[in-house]
Amino acid sequence: MKKIIVPIDFSKYSEYALEAAAILAKKHNAEILALHMLEMSDGLFASSDAGQKPKVLFFLKLAEQKFKEFLNKAYLEGIKITPIVKQSKVFSEVSEVAEQHHADLIVMGSHGVSGFTEVFVGSNTEKVVRHSKIPVLVIKQKPNNLNFDTAIFASNFSEEAVGPYIKASKMLPETSKLQLLYVNVPGENFKSTAEMEQQVANFLKKADGHLDQLNTVNYVSDYSIEKGIVNFSNLAGADLIMLPTHGRKGLAHFFEGSISEDLVNHANLPVMTFKI
């Protein structure tokens, strides 16, 4: 891991993310790209009105000063920090900036949302998870050591989840205990024990080339996949949830939902997502 991007909105949650990124940067000798997105329309920047230019420059200077003060943290000492200011708040741009700078990870803070706010507005973090092609780590609380002693990789163990599983395994320290989780739910996706075990065995043969991880697989039943993941993670004393995401958009997201985005909003543990 060489570059970590952290979107900053000056909230305490983005400070949690910045501190988490600092911990990871020190462990991996990585650079932090601190990204602030100004809530200013493109029209202001493109305007030919001479009266708008001083306003734009004023807000840019104000943002740069506030950004500089925000990045003046003791825990950032010794870490290479690259500040980046973008002119508009379009969350797909976070992924674009990450790609342009060849970042390995996006770290974001989130307070989560629920109810009507979740349906009609959604969280900024959720939007980044949906668009990002690189892994996203979501932090909800002030980070501790981020050793990730026990990590859960939750999946349906389909063939398309092989790539995310391999990436997730590489993200963890060698000392981490990775537990695999299959949540069986009522309905058309319900599987018998034999069917689940066969699917996981086929998955591991393709992903690892062997079945050494078979004894780390946990099968649980619950009323929803999200509840199953949260309940098992709490029971196992996990400190990280890892899972693949399709990044569904629009009506597909509204009607089918996205497990990863729901967990980003509702789980108290750090969540790391990997785009399928």
UniProtKB/TrEMBL annotation:
<protein>
    <submittedName>
        <fullName>Universal stress protein</fullName>
    </submittedName>
</protein>
<comment type="similarity">
    <text>Belongs to the universal stress protein A family.</text>
</comment>
<feature type="domain" description="UspA">
    <location>
        <begin position="210"/>
        <end position="274"/>
    </location>
</feature>
<dbReference type="InterPro" id="IPR006016">
    <property type="entry name" value="UspA"/>
</dbReference>
<dbReference type="Pfam" id="PF00582">
    <property type="entry name" value="Usp"/>
</dbReference>
<dbReference type="InterPro" id="IPR014729">
    <property type="entry name" value="Rossmann-like_a/b/a_fold"/>
</dbReference>
<feature type="domain" description="UspA">
    <location>
        <begin position="1"/>
        <end position="140"/>
    </location>
</feature>
<dbReference type="InterPro" id="IPR006015">
    <property type="entry name" value="Universal_stress_UspA"/>
</dbReference>
